[in-house]
Write a structure and sequence with these properties.
By secondary structure, the chain is of the alpha+beta class. It has three helices and ten strands; from the N terminus they run αβββββββααβββ. Helices cover 13% and strands 27% of the residues. β1 and β2 form a beta hairpin. The chain is globular. The two termini are 20 Å apart.
């Protein structure tokens, strides 16, 4: 699968060839990441914990949360430049290893919520558009396949809300939100965790294009 950067390089070669033949060159556009609902469990400001960093695996100096650790890395890319988007706010939220949200709207009494899991995190993109979170591999809960919610807010005022999914998970096609996407859109929000070189869990990377 070609990354957006690779696709742009190939697209640039094609555009250059067309221009040399006397046709007007067009700027190559990366395919945009599909948007999705934030759902009912986006943490409102008065619901968030005092700790809202990019490490969701533990609260303060407390014990680590349950679940398979996941180092989620990525880049935020401008569809029309093309290039990275620095300084943007990236937020993620998801259920804990027991399938519970850190949100009063999740009124279930069982299973018990994992108090060690932060549930929500945020980070700023670097000069190269990069971001990183420490979290857990998402798990299913009634009615939904495993997913991670993500919200982007750029300094220029652009935004995107989307959801990231585990590629090829057997519950994906039974999820109504996932099924509404095209095959190409599913590829743009797919995560394929692999063993982390540190041996402390898994890692996955995604390019977000807005």
């Amino acid at each position: 699968m070609l990354t957006p950067t690779r696709r742009w390089l190939l697209g640039g070669l094609v555009v250059g060839g067309v221009g040399a033949s006397g046709y007007a060159a067009r700027r190559y556009l990366w395919p945009a990441t599909p948007g999705s609902t934030a759902g009912p469990f986006y943490p409102e400001p008065d619901m968030r914990l005092s700790e809202v960093d990019a490490d969701l695996l533990r609260m303060g100096a407390g014990p680590p949360s349950a679940g398979i650790p996941l180092r989620l890395t990525g880049r935020l890319l401008d569809q029309r430049q093309p290039g990275p988007i620095p300084g943007a706010l990236v937020e993620i939220w998801q259920v804990d290893a027991n399938g519970r949200y850190l949100h009063p709207g999740d009124a279930r009494t069982t299973p018990q919520r994992d108090a060690a899991f932060q549930g929500y995190g945020r980070a700023r993109t670097g000069t190269d558009g990069s971001f990183e979170f420490q979290t857990i591999q998402p798990v299913p809960y009634p009615g939904r396949t495993p997913h991670i919610h993500m919200r982007i807010s750029t300094l220029a005022g652009a935004g995107l809300t989307t959801q990231l999914y585990l590629e090829d998970h057997p519950m994906n096609l039974s999820d109504a939100i996932y099924r509404r996407m095209t095959w190409a859109e599913r590829r743009r929000v797919g995560l394929r965790p692999i063993s982390d070189p540190t041996g402390l869990g898994t890692t996955a990377q995604v390019d977000i294009v807005i």
